[in-house]
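User: I've been trying to design a sequence by hand for this structure and keep getting stuck. Would you show me what you'd pick, starting by listing the structure so we're on the same page?

Assistant: Good idea, let's start from the same input. This is the structure you sent:
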């Protein structure tokens, strides 16, 4: 789930929860809105965690160290 999808679910859920006043038999629109908002928030958190997991892997720098030969002093 991407950021846009999660934000869309949160927005639709908020509209159903707070703005719609219609009643339906056997179906509570307010509860459906709450469920959509919870799923959207969970998707947003998982998207952030997934993005942060991949961003750490790109930031690793490989440092090559020169080979130092052992110096032998002759007396």
């Amino acid at each position: 789930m991407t950021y846009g999808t999660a934000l869309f679910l949160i927005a639709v859920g908020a509209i159903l929860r707070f703005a719609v006043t219609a009643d339906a038999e056997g179906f509570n629109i307010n509860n459906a809105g709450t469920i959509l908002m919870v799923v959207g928030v969970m998707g947003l958190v998982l998207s952030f965690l997934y993005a942060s997991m991949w961003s750490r892997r790109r930031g690793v720098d490989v440092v090559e160290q020169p080979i130092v030969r052992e110096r032998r002093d002759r007396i």
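That's my pick for every position. To get oriented when you compare it with your attempt: The two ends are 71 Å apart (CA to CA). Residues 29-58 form the longest helix (30 residues).
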